[in-house]
TrEMBL record:
PANTHER family in alphabetical order: PALMITOYLTRANSFERASE ZDHHC6 (PTHR22883:SF23), ZINC FINGER DHHC DOMAIN CONTAINING PROTEIN (PTHR22883)
Source organism per UniProt: Colletotrichum chrysophilum
Protein name: Palmitoyltransferase
One GO BP: protein targeting to membrane
Limits of the Palmitoyltransferase DHHC domain: 201-241
GO CC term, one of those recorded: membrane
Topology in the lipid bilayer: Multi-pass membrane protein
Transmembrane segments: 78-100, 112-132
Swiss-Prot/TrEMBL domain comment: The DHHC domain is required for palmitoyltransferase activity.
Subcellular location(s) of the protein: Membrane
Biased composition (Basic and acidic residues): 13-24
Length: 245
């Protein structure tokens, strides 16, 4: 007998000596695993906690949103007419009844009548000029971001189906354009600073299929991206944005 130890049989009952095996990454202890920077816990949690919408609920929600947009557009058309009519009637009352009939003809206060009419017309013309400038600028150029080459504008048929809550009429949203020569990227890379995502690319709008400039947002009211979008104002008949500042 020599001093070498005999190999012990392994646990499987074979007479072959135990050989070192390569550790499986999934079976390795936690201390030996490489930490994964992308955790899926949040994703799984969100999927578990997010409410599940049925087809009828989605159709009802989209129909309600479409009805709200339709109501906003009608209010946008009506309010400027109301403002114009009200201001015109107020001007007629102040000039004709107060200035001419009452002060000038009845009380014979000619200086007071002329001063009242002059001061009122001065501020009224300034107000009208400011309002008309904003109103016409919004109608002429609301500051829309150009659509991407793959964007599809909904036709009248798809708009009607979307209003009725048809799920198939809703646009299909895709991720950003992965083409390094995508139209519009060169304009961003020529700047010194621009707002970007984690991958270094600008923000992408899936509905307009285009790269969004800084401070541009997508408006659900007009279904377009708007530069420096502030809010949709029915009092001035449209979107308050970069062009009317």
């Amino acid at each position: 007998m020599h001093g070498t130890a005999a190999s012990q049989p392994n646990s499987s009952g074979d007479d072959k000596p135990d050989c070192p095996r390569k550790l499986d990454a999934a079976a390795s202890p936690p201390s030996m695993r490489r930490p994964n920077p992308h955790s899926y816990t949040l994703l799984v949690t969100n999927l578990e906690t997010e409410p599940q919408w049925s087809g009828n609920e989605c159709a009802s929600a989209m129909s309600a949103a479409t009805s709200t947009k339709c109501a906003s557009r009608w209010v946008t058309r009506i309010i400027p007419v109301i403002i114009t009519s009200t201001s015109g009637y107020a001007t007629y009352v102040i000039i004709a009844y107060l200035g001419v009939d009452y002060l000038y003809r009845t009380r014979h206060e000619h200086g007071t009548a002329i001063a009242t009419i002059t001061i009122y017309l001065f501020f009224y013309l300034l107000t009208i000029a400011t309002y008309l400038r904003t109103f016409l600028k919004i109608k002429e150029d609301p500051g829309l971001v150009p659509l991407g080459p793959q964007a599809q504008l909904p036709d009248s048929n798809s708009k009607r189906r979307r209003k009725d809550g048809d799920l198939e009429s809703q646009p299909y949203f895709t991720g950003p354009d992965q083409n390094p020569d995508s139209p519009g990227l060169e304009d961003f890379y020529s700047r010194d600073v621009f707002v970007c995502e984690n991958d270094g690319r600008p923000k992408w709008c899936s509905e307009c299929r285009t790269w969004k400039p800084d401070r541009a947002h997508h408006s659900s009211e007009i279904e377009r991206c708007v530069r420096k979008m502030d809010h949709y104002c029915p009092w001035v008949g449209g979107m308050v944005s970069e062009t009317c500042q």
